[in-house]
Specification:
By secondary structure, this protein is α+β, with helices and mostly antiparallel strands. It is built from eleven helices and six strands. Strands 1-6-5-4 form a four-stranded mixed sheet. The chain has a two-stranded antiparallel sheet with strand order 2-3. A hairpin with a 2-residue loop joins strand 4 and strand 5. Helix 2 packs antiparallel against helix 7, helix 3 packs parallel to helix 9 and helix 8 packs antiparallel against helix 9. It is elongated, with a radius of gyration of 29 Å. The two termini are 23 Å apart. Its main location: membrane. One of its GO terms (biological process) is intracellular monoatomic cation homeostasis. GO terms for molecular function: monoatomic cation transmembrane transporter activity. It comes from Mycena albidolilacea.
C-alpha cells in the first residue's frame, strides 16, 4: 500500500491515474453552506409540508406566502441577480403583450399583432428561464452528484423552441395576409401581365379558406398611430436586452443569455414592424405590413435556430471549442517546470490531452499531466490541487478538474 513518502517503484504501472472529485462551489464563489440537519417528517401531513423551487422546505399554512415573499424579495433586489432581472423582464413582457396586442387590433396592423405574439413567447420564455435558473443554482444532491447546471441548457433549449414556434406562427399569419392583399390588388388592376402574374401566384400558393376571412379584418387601413406602440416596443426590449445581457455575462449563464437574445429579437421585430407600418402608411397600395410580418418571422427563426444549435452541443456533451482548450493550457503554463514563473513546479513536465464539456454555465475539465517517475503520491496530490486552483482562478466557470498523471523518464 502506497504511503505519503513512498516512491513509485518500478513494479507499479508506469501510469498513475488519480481522479479526484472536487466539491463544487456555488456561483458566487462562497463556500458551500453546511448540510441542513436531518429533518423528522413524522407527524407532518402532506398538507402541512411542501417543497418549493424557491424554498426547499416550507411548512404550515404560510408556505405559499413565504414563496411569494421570496419572489418579491428577488424582484426588489434581495434575491440573486438572475432571478431579479428575469422577473423584471417577465413583468415588462406582460405589459408589452397587452399594449401591443390591443394596439395592433385597434390599428389593424398585422406587424404589430405579430410583434405582440412574440411578446407572448417572451413571457413564456421568462417563466422557463426563472425556473431553470433557480434549479441550476441548487447544490449537488445524491441524485444529481454533478449538480443541476444542465437545467440551464434545458431552459435554453426550451426558450429556443419557443422562438422557433413563434416564428412559424408569425410567418404563417403574415403569409396568409400577404396572399389576401395580393388577391385584392390583382382584382383591382387592369388586364395585363402584372395582373396575370399576381393571379397565378395567389392561385398556385397553398392557403386555407378561413385565412382569407381573418385577413380581411386587418388588410386595410393601418392606423399610423401604431407607429408609437412599435417604437415603445423597440426601446423597451432593447433596454431589457442590454441589462439582461450584462447579468448573463457576469454570471456566465447560457439560459440568461438566451433570454437576453429573446429580448433582442423582439426589439428587431418591433423595428421591422415600425418600418412596415410606416411604409404601409406612405404607400397604402403596397402590402408592406404583412411583408414586415414575414421579415419579423425570419429574424425570430434565425435567433431560435442559433440558440437551439448551441444548446444541442451541451445536451450531447460536445467538447468545448479549441480556443477554450488553448486557454486552459495557457493558464497552466506558469506551473510547468520549464517556466520561469515563481509558481512553477519541477514535477510538472507537460500538459496534454486537454478536454472539456459544458453543463450550463459550468465547465468540467480533464487533462493529462506528465510527471517524473520519482514523484510521490503525496506530491502528486499537492500538484493536482495546484492545477485545479490555477484553472479555477483563471476561468471561474471551471467547476471540476480531473487529472490523469503519466510518468515519464
Amino acid at each position: 500500500m502506497l504511503r505519503g513518502g513512498t516512491r513509485l517503484a518500478s513494479r507499479f504501472s508506469p501510469t498513475l491515474i488519480m481522479r479526484r472529485s472536487l466539491a463544487r462551489k456555488p456561483q458566487n464563489g462562497q463556500e458551500k453552506p453546511p448540510e441542513a440537519p436531518e429533518h423528522d417528517h413524522e407527524g407532518h401531513s402532506h398538507s402541512s409540508h411542501s417543497h418549493s423551487l424557491f424554498t426547499p422546505h416550507s411548512h404550515g399554512p404560510g408556505a405559499s406566502t413565504d414563496t411569494a415573499e421570496k419572489l418579491m424579495a428577488a424582484f426588489r433586489g434581495a434575491g440573486d441577480r438572475g432571478s431579479q432581472i428575469t422577473l423584471l423582464g417577465l413583468f415588462a413582457n406582460i405589459g408589452l403583450l397587452v399594449i401591443k396586442g390591443t394596439a395592433g387590433w385597434m390599428t389593424h396592423s398585422a406587424a404589430l399583432i405579430a410583434d405582440a405574439g412574440h411578446s407572448l413567447s417572451d413571457l413564456l420564455g421568462d417563466g422557463v428561464t426563472l425556473v431553470c435558473w433557480r434549479l441550476s443554482r441548487k447544490p449537488p444532491s445524491e441524485t444529481y452528484p454533478f449538480g443541476f447546471a444542465k437545467f440551464e441548457t434545458l431552459g435554453t433549449t426550451t426558450v429556443s423552441l419557443f422562438l422557433i414556434g413563434g416564428a412559424l406562427g408569425v410567418g404563417f399569419h403574415s403569409y396568409h395576409l400577404l396572399l389576401t392583399s395580393l388577391t385584392e390588388t390583382a382584382a383591382t388592376l387592369p388586364s395585363g401581365a402584372l395582373q396575370e402574374l399576381l393571379t397565378n401566384i395567389t392561385t398556385a400558393a397553398p392557403v386555407h379558406d378561413h385565412a382569407h376571412a381573418h385577413g380581411h379584418s386587418h388588410a386595410h387601413g393601418v392606423d399610423p398611430n401604431a407607429l408609437w406602440f412599435a417604437a415603445i416596443g423597440v426601446l423597451s426590449k432593447e433596454w431589457l436586452y442590454r441589462i439582461t445581457r450584462k447579468v448573463a455575462d457576469q454570471e456566465n449563464s447560457p439560459v440568461l443569455l438566451a433570454n437576453a437574445i429573446h429580448h433582442r429579437s423582439d426589439a428587431y421585430s418591433s423595428i421591422v414592424a415600425f418600418f412596415a407600418i410606416l411604409g404601409t402608411w406612405w404607400v397604402p397600395g403596397l402590402p408592406l405590413d404583412p411583408i414586415g410580418g414575414l421579415l419579423v418571422a425570419l429574424v425570430i427563426l434565425r435567433q431560435g435556430v442559433g440558440l437551439l444549435w448551441g444548446a444541442w452541443g451541451d445536451l450531447t456533451d460536445a467538447g468545448v471549442p479549441l480556443s477554450t482548450r488553448k486557454d486552459v493550457k495557457r493558464a497552466l503554463e506558469p506551473l510547468l517546470a520549464t517556466s520561469a514563473s515563481p509558481s512553477s513546479s519541477p514535477s510538472l513536465l507537460a500538459i496534454r490531452h486537454v478536454r472539456g464539456r459544458r453543463a450550463g454555465s459550468l465547465i468540467f475539465v480533464d487533462l493529462t499531466a506528465e510527471v517524473p517517475k520519482t514523484l510521490t503520491v503525496h506530491d502528486a496530490t499537492i500538484l493536482e490541487e495546484e492545477i485545479t486552483q490555477t484553472l479555477k482562478t483563471a476561468r471561474k466557470e471551471v467547476t471540476e478538474v480531473r487529472v490523469k498523471f503519466t510518468t515519464v523518464d
